[in-house]
Design brief:
By secondary structure, the protein is an alpha/beta fold. The protein has helices spanning 2-15, 22-25, 29-45, 49-63, 195-217; strands spanning 66-67, 72-73, 78-79, 86-87, 92-93, 98-99, 104-106, 118-119, 124-125, 130-132, 136-137, 142-143, 148-149, 158-160, 165-169, 172-173.
Length: 226
């Protein structure tokens, strides 16, 4: 347990530039949610399911992060900010996964079977993303903010939008996202365009194009600039 805790703390410090020292990391709700889950998961596997659920509900109230004690979570899992995260019972999360606030790993079936997603190693899930059903997100894949994913995403791919579409795979851009759905994957190396600014610029460009066409048809009637 202590070795896992050291790994978790080191992973947070490596991924979050705001984490200036170990004492600050120990205040992170995401860290405590993972610590509580590891204990609750041990209780669950030991057939002490009621105690496991009590601990998971306490953790939910204390951190704002709900992780079912039956979920399987790998090493160095980091939930940044964390508020509003929900992880279902049969979810499986690999090693070195980074997840932002508001993410849901949900199910679509009422049957007692595998009904929640499986995340591979090194996956990044942007804020507000919803990953639904017994699907697999491959190693190193990136899911954009607010994406809704209902099908498998291959290893190393980037998916954005509602429903999520793969826009990059193997370093090759497959499809450009729609203007209202920019690739807002949360990453310190990626600065996504402001969707509102892009929309306003598009509207102004269209208005100016219409003005030029009107000016050509009726000279003198469109002197006011837009």
């Amino acid at each position: 347990m202590l070795s896992r805790l050291r790994e978790d703390i080191a992973a947070i410090r490596a991924r979050d530039p705001a984490a200036r020292n170990v004492w600050e990391v120990l205040t992170y709700a995401g860290l405590w949610a993972v610590i509580h889950h590891r204990v609750a998961h041990w209780l669950w596997r030991s057939n002490l399911k009621t105690l496991a659920r009590i601990l998971s509900q306490f953790s939910r109230g204390a951190t704002g992060i709900e992780i079912h004690p039956g979920a399987t979570i790998g090493r160095r899992f980091f939930i940044d900010h964390g508020m509003g995260v929900v992880i279902g019972e049969t979810a499986i999360i690999g090693d070195d996964v980074l997840m932002y606030h508001g993410v849901t790993l949900g199910g679509t079936s009422l049957e007692q079977k595998k009904r929640h997603p499986t995340l591979g190693n090194g996956v990044l899930i942007g804020m507000g993303a919803k990953i639904i059903g017994d699907i697999t997100i491959g190693d190193g894949a990136r899911i954009g903010a607010n994406a809704v994913v209902t099908r498998d995403i291959p290893e190393g791919a980037t998916a954005v939008g509602i429903p999520a579409k793969i826009i990059k795979h193997g370093g090759i851009t497959i499809d450009k996202p729609e203007p209202e759905l920019p690739p807002t994957v949360m990453d310190s190396t990626l600065n996504a365009a402001d969707p509102h600014g892009e929309a306003i610029r598009g509207i102004l460009a269209e208005m100016n194009a219409l003005r030029e066409r009107l000016a050509a048809l009726e000279p003198g009637d469109t002197d006011r600039p837009v």
